[in-house]
Amino acid sequence: MPDNVVAVNGLVKRYGDATVLDGVQFTIKRGEIFGLLGPNGAGKTTLIECIVGLRTATAGGIDVLGFDPAVDRDAITARVAVQTQSASLFDTLTVAETLRLFASFHTDPRDPVEVARAVGLNQQSGVRTKKLSGGQYRRLLLGVALVANPQLIVLDEPSAGLDPVARRNLWSLIRSLRDDGTTVLLSTHHMDEATELCDRVAILIAGRIVALDSPDALVLQRSADSDVSFTVDAGADLAVIAQLADGAATSQSLPGGALRVTIPTADPDELLRRITFTRELRARDISIHRGSLEDIFLELAETTDAS
User: What is the pLDDT of residue 228?
Assistant: First the structure.
């Protein structure tokens, strides 16, 4: 079996004079959770539709598990499952009946009972779909995709509209898919979701991949500085603070006259040691804020818009 489940090579998609995808290129490795991030209108949906064979590329190529998704439709359908952002199930069927129905569409499905257990709906097997909560309904949609026993599963905004507990439960389930060897392509607008789940992410803006790496690596590559913040009492020696910060400190007054000081630095560990050993400051409530994937995303989006 190839190491790359998906290989997108110079993909171009045009509608008339409008170029929606412009030379997109990346691979998705077997057994990884790969995140696809981008603002509305970036081309994410078109890219996903090309990968699963619903649209044909204008130029370039796509290889999914050794097949051309636009040509080898039967092979792709048997190996790739998609959970769309919104979908309708039969209201009067129970969870068990729904999973058995969709299992019947495939030649080598997973056991519907096993799938219900995997998605945490074994206690709701006899409940009709119209009676499920929002989180349970999302889990059932994922179960419908899983029952196909796919090698690649595509999840489009899987946690949209879920409460925090339901989101965390869904994340745990997605991680278990990767641990079982299923490759996951995850499209999301939630940067915390991408940071928590994805082994690598691609940021798609205006039809182009502008960044691709692990979330941590992207932050390290593009956000050299961190902010070290601490609180000092009224009357603290501002000259000492200025010396620590090389004149780059900012401060905010707090109730009682205390100051909240923030110093940008490329070496937060060294600055933290200096603050700690400067006893006359009596610094407290020390925190370090590093750049986040959301910071990188916004920076790239703004830079692209400006250009």
Answer: 93
User: 205 Cβ partners below 8 Å, 6+ apart?
Assistant: 38, 39, 42, 300, 301, 304
Residue burial 1-36, b: 16+ Cβ < 10 Å; e: rest: eeebbbbbeebebeeeeebbbbebebbbebbbbbbb
Q: Both tokens of residue 162? A: 């879920």
Average model confidence (pLDDT) across the chain: 89
Interatomic CA distance for residues 167 and 219, integer angstroms: 24
Nearest CA-CA partner of 146 in 122, 199, 182, 121: 182
Tens of pLDDT, residue by residue over 136-153, are 888 898 899 889 989 999
Residue 164: DSSP 8-state:
H
Q: Give the span between the Cα atoms of 243 and 209, in whole angstroms.
A: 42
Copy the structure tokens of residue 112.
Answer: 């519907």
Domains of the chain from N-terminus onward = 4-220 (3.40.50.300), 224-290 (3.30.70.260)
Tokens of 182: 């299923």
Give the DSSP H/E element, type plus range, for residue 261. Answer: strand 259-265
5, two tokens: 């489940």
On whether the CB atoms of residues 100 and 113 are closer than 8 A, the answer is no
Q: What is the DSSP string of 57-106?
A: -SEEEEEETTB-TTT-HHHHHHHEEEE-SS----TTSBHHHHHHHHHTTS
Rounded Cα gap, residues 161 and 141, in angstroms? 14
Bridge partner residues of 59 (DSSP)? 12
Share above pLDDT 70 across residues of the chain, in percent, rounded to a whole number: 97
Q: Are 14 and 20 in contact (CB under 8 A)?
A: yes
Which one-letter DSSP state was computed for residue 94? B
Q: How confident is the model at residue 23 (pLDDT cuts 50, 70, 90)?
A: very high
φ, ψ of residue 250 in degrees (nearest 5)? -120, 155
Task: Give me the torsion for CA of 260, 262, 244, 239, rounded to 10°.
Answer: -40
Relative to beta strand 152-156, strand 80-83 is parallel
35 Rama class: left (phi>0) / alpha (psi -120 to 50) / beta: beta
